[in-house]
Design brief:
Elements lengths: L8 H23 L12 H28 L6 H18 L4 H25 L5 H23 L18 H5 L20 H23 L1 H11 L1 H6 L4
Amino acid sequence: MDRFLPSNPRARSAVLAVAAAALTLLFTQVVLPGGSGGGRGAPSAMLFQGLVNGTLVGLSAVGVVLLYRTLRIINFAQGAIGAVGYVTLLLFLQFTHLPFLLSFLIALLLSTALGAIVGVVMLRFFNSSRLFLTVVTIVGVPAVLGLLAFINRMPFFPPLAERPASGQLTGPSLKLLLPFPAWKFRVGSFPIDFGFSHVFALDVGLIALIAIGIFFRYTRTGTAVRALAENPERASLLGIG
């Protein structure tokens, strides 16, 4: 296989990416069955839905892989940290008059600050075994989720007794809180409606992934993190803590 690939790492990555995209397109359009009308090939709507979901899953996977490559641990609290920001966003949209983008930024900053606090706490146990650090992230999940009860009772939200009895937001009711609630579109002829939430998730996910790539490729800190992930011993000798 190596003799058919370029020796340059960048060129090799580009060739592999194109080959993976071609194989994916071949599989989805030739191997998979078509819609109810017969024929071959997955409907375009299903592919678009997979692109949105895959982008979000890929963004989460980047966080898991990054932490494992640098610290050799799996952060089981990552989902809980994101859940705090998600629930905060829903509360702002449901019970305040703040615009969506401002609510989104507040929720994002909250999760970022929470992640930084968790990172500082993890430094306290940095010299412990990797298994111990992984267990710390598991134990920290209830503590992180416990913040939701505190956030839920913040003074700028109505008291629990005055809130609607239904409590939980469903998919249709959640769409009414987002910008452009009546806007919907379809990809192809398959009857799946898409809207603002899909476009926003795809845009934010792609922008975040591109920003992460630029950070690791063109910044000194990103280069240091890559060096630490590739060869921790040599990075330590070069003065990278």
